[in-house]
Amino acid sequence: MLAGMLVTLAGAQSQSLGDYARATRKDKDKKQPVAKQFDNDNLPKTDKLSIVGNAAEKPAEEAKDSALQESDRAKAAAEPSKSLETTPKDEAAEREKGYKEWHQKIANQKSQMELLSREMDVLQREYRLRAAAFYADAGNRLRNQGDWDKEDTAYKQKIAEKQKAVNAAKQQLEDLQEQARKAGVPAPMRE
Fold first, then answer.
1. 9-36 confidence digits (pLDDT tens)
2. Measured between alpha carbons, how far is 12 from 17 in angstroms, rounded to an integer?
3. Cα R_g (the chain), whole angstroms
4. How many whole angstroms from its chain centre is CA 49?
5. CA distances (Å), 12 to each of 18, 19, 74, 147, 173, in order?
6. Which residues contact 126 (CB under 8 A, 6 or more apart)?
7. Per-residue model confidence as pLDDT tens digits over 93-143
8. CA separation for the pair 148, 128 (Å, rounded)
9. Which of 185, 189, 174, 159 is nearest to 109 (CA)?
10. Is the separation of the CB atoms in 86 and 80 below 8 Å?
11. Angle, to 10 degrees, between the axis of helix 82-136 and the axis of helix 145-182?
12. 102 contacts 96 by C-beta, under 8 angstroms
């Protein structure tokens, strides 16, 4: 009996909930004004759309300036010049030429940095080979300790100088890439 009551109550409650949802949906449709929706077909061409709200009024000087600018634009549209037609092409070619120059500068700096890195690697390998040969022979180590110290110091100094040169080349490369980025060179041309 208790189960029957619960089933009946649940059925009555869901039925009234559905009725309530239908009623609120009908009320919503009546209360909400239909918002005008724009698409490409009904987009106004002469009137301006304001997404935020009404435009603020311009001061008198700004209104005069904008009127002058609009008249200048109208004159320019009425008198098409040949220089305006070739300007975008020339600008694009000039920009592309500038990008290629930046790319070439960066590529040259990369090759210089790689060359210095290889030279430093060769110096380090030579040093390790000489050290291995020196320390492998105990008699040679005892006889030529003074000479080894001088050569060891010279090699370490050469390696340190080469490391400074590599670091400077890396810094110059990073600076060039940053300058190219600031100049507006696209990322693929900077890499």
1. 555 555 576 777 787 777 766 655 556 7
2. 9
3. 40
4. 32
5. 10, 11, 72, 105, 77
6. 155
7. 888 888 888 888 889 999 999 999 999 999 999 999 988 888 888 887 778
8. 13
9. 174
10. no
11. 160
12. no
Share of residues in the chain with pLDDT > 90 (%): 21
Q: Under a CB-based contact definition with an 8 Å cutoff, are residues 158 and 130 in contact?
A: no
Q: Looking at residue 135, what is its pLDDT?
A: 83
**Which residue in the block uniquely carries the two structure tokens 């909930």?**
17
**3 state SS of 72:** helix
Distances in Å between the Cα of 16 and the Cα atoms of 11, 21, 23 are: 9, 9, 10
What pLDDT shows up at residue 168? 93
Cα separations in angstroms, 187 against 40, 174, 178 = 35, 13, 11
